[in-house]
Write a structure and sequence with these properties.
274 residues, 3-stranded antiparallel β-sheet, disordered C terminus, elongated, 9 helices, alpha+beta
Length: 274
Amino acid sequence: MNRQGEALSLKSLTKSTVWDIQESDVFRLWAQAERNGDVKENWRHYMDVIKSAFIIEEVKTNKPEILAKFEARGCQVAEVHIDESTSFKWAIKKKPILRTTDLTWENIGHISARKLIEVLERNFGGGWDSLPQSVQDIINSAFDISTTTLPVDRLKKPGGLYHQKLEDGYEVLEVAKGTWVEAIFAKEKPKLELSSTKLKLDEDFDDDRLSDEEDDDLDLNGDDELTEKRKSDDDEDDGFDEDKLTEESYRTTFDTSTDDLDLQASEVNDEEDF
């Protein structure tokens, strides 16, 4: 069992790649991890990853009739070991994808266009726009989706969009709307395109974050400039401008006693009489 040229192991299993394996693979990968000594410290994490794609029930009996009931439900039953003294018996079954609410970001890339059409056909009759936006976003992340609504007698016109899409490998779901029909076309996106899309989203996020940081720097610089301007204005107000001074700006005072003033006044009178 390989994925992109690498052997899949319990340690490398993720909540996305776990959808690529089946019940028997779970027990095989667990036994392999047990031999490598990886289970004891990480078994809770491994169990959490497995539970994202599988239903796990602990079986606490060895009665054949009970085990038969689990097997009748499509479960595989086997024993798993945590360490030398701890073990469990599990009944495991892959989670079915039957409803649009079963679609997740982790499993959408692991189903075919045909499977998607079956899920859509089973769950709704109002057309593509009747799906919640969150479900549309999940589907669009892994599939190229397009729709058209035409009268019944025009939908499959030779050479029209319907036949072009089929020739291009699209699966189609027809939703009747009275005398009209909505055709929903679905085709799996190339895996490389999925990776490129995620990379582009990451780059956009980084660019937006960088832009926000630059805006913050500009705001800080603007605050610094405003502070400098205010400081400069305050300095100008406190400064002494000699050019603005006039004669009226000056006043001279003398410290003189009353007797001196009387004497000076008497001398002035004597001079005038003389």
